[in-house]
Amino acid sequence: MTPVPSGRADPCAPVPAVTREDVERARLTIADALHRTPVLSSEAFSGLAGTHVELKAEHLQRTGSFKVRGALVRLANLTPQERARGVVAASAGNHAQGVAWAARRLGIDAEVHMPADASLPKVDATRGYGAGVVLGGLSVEDAVARAREVAEREGRTFIHPYDHPDVVAGQGTIGLEIVEQVPDVGTILVPTGGGGLLAGIAAAVPDHVRVIGVQAERAACYPPALAAGEPVVVATERTMADGIAVGIAGAVPLSVVRARHVPVVTVTEDSLSRAVLSLAERAKQVVEPAGAAGAAALVQGAASPPHQGIDALGELIDPSRPLVVVLSGGNVDPIVLRKVFRHGMSAAGRYLHLRCHLTDRPGHLARLLGVIAETGADVVTVGHVRTGSGLGVDETAVDIEVVTKGWEHSGEVLSRIREAGYDAAER
Predict the structure, then answer these.
(1) Ranges for the ACT domain (predicted)?
(2) Count of alpha carbons within 13 Å of 311, Cβ hemisphere only?
(3) What pLDDT was estimated at residue 397?
(4) Lower Cβ count inside 10 Å, N or C end of the chain?
(5) Domain assignments of the chain as residue spans, ordered by start
């Protein structure tokens, strides 16, 4: 891990502070343009947390994400000359849409660079908001490099997704709303990538409110940055929480996070998918995995029974006061959402993928399916594999996907299949 600046215009200059007063000014900027998103009570998550839980529904914001707050404040504060030259940004989705929407509202020409494999709905939405979209490269980092080249060549202003005081202040307006909507709030769980949202909320709320950042463990740049006292580059792995998959903390947000002594925890892929599933089933809210990171912290450790829930956060939460979970975005491709739901069901013990070897004769598959039916499980798909190593000439392997009622029922299904003489193995 190498200490590096995170892209400010002058990395040698002192890191600007972001104060509550900055956030208050930002709120005046966005007041007539953006939604004051609601908070939604959740009995299901309250049961996990052991205290009253409210969900800050920022996924219902314009463009489907909190990103538009910071983008609008940043663009509104440009000089007339900067507005005339236009702006350029880079993003895989939410920041792109936020910049595009804000630029259209302010009459600023915007160009957004996105990876070649960016989600089609996010690309279409960005174009629909009026921005020019340039696709190319394999990653957001590639897109950032191209955007910076355009900024230098054409004189456009590069709009960083999180490492700028205006962006941090804009995101912090969520914190002001939370304190007004839940006056006795004790803890706020915040999905965290580069840290703009985390720092903004931390700057906005009173000192007695505990703000906790939540990162995907496969892309957790804040723990090492907090340990080093400065941004460091970390290698990120592929994660379903692509919206917070950032390899380096921003210098501006990190300074706020450190000053406020904000802790950052990490969550697994299983916890993320279970959170997305739980939010859809119990709260009736469709949230992308990155936006559900705060909720995932409440189900952390629940990938297998018994449910541990809030134990994962230890001493960080005050159970005597309400807890607010920020749902930061809802822009998820339906195809990805289907995969996440299936992953979440598997993590919750409600989905089995089995392979069984059978004699390849009429009636044998029907007998196996009959055994499963007797358990009350629901067979979703059946597939045959008739060639491959380990299979005799008169054998077939059958892949079966089964929906169950939970861990205990899954164990019962597997036991009954094996008791009937089949060598079932989980896949």
Answers:
(1) 353-427
(2) 6
(3) 80
(4) C
(5) 20-66+165-344, 68-158, 349-426
What per-residue confidence (pLDDT) applies to 64?
96
Cβ-contact 210, 187 below 8 angstroms: yes
> What pLDDT does residue 301 have?
42
Instruction: Classify residue 237 by its DSSP letter.
Output: P
Distance CA 2, CA 228 (A): 10
Of how many residues is the chain composed? 427
Q: What fold does the segment set 20-66+165-344 form as a domain?
A: Rossmann fold (3.40.50)
Q: What is the mean pLDDT of each run of 10 residues along the chain (427 residues)?
A: 43 77 98 97 91 97 97 98 97 93 98 90 94 89 90 96 96 98 98 97 97 95 95 90 91 96 94 94 94 93 40 75 97 86 79 81 83 85 71 75 83 84 79
Q: Quickly count: other Cβ atoms within 10 Å of residue 235's Cβ.
A: 9
- Report which DSSP code applies to 405: S
Q: Which top CATH class is 68-158? A: alpha beta
Cβ partners under 8 Å of residue 326, min gap 6: 56, 58, 66, 174, 178, 188, 189, 190, 191, 197, 201, 294
State the Cα–Cα distance between residues 198 and 172, nearest whole angstrom. 8
Between the CA atoms of 277, 281, 283 and 286, what dihedral angle is there, to the nearest 10 degrees?
50
Supply the pLDDT for residue 415. 84
Q: What token pair was written down for 218?
A: 């496969």
Backbone angles phi, psi at 361, to 5 degrees: -135, 155
**Fold: same for 20-66+165-344 and 68-158:** yes
Residue 399 tokens, joined: 């892949």
Burial of 387 (0-12, 13-18, 19+ CB in 10 A): exposed
Distance between CA atoms of residues 80 and 68, nearest Å: 21
Residue type, 137: G
| Strand order from edge to edge, sheet including 110-114 | 132-135, 110-114, 87-90, 157-158
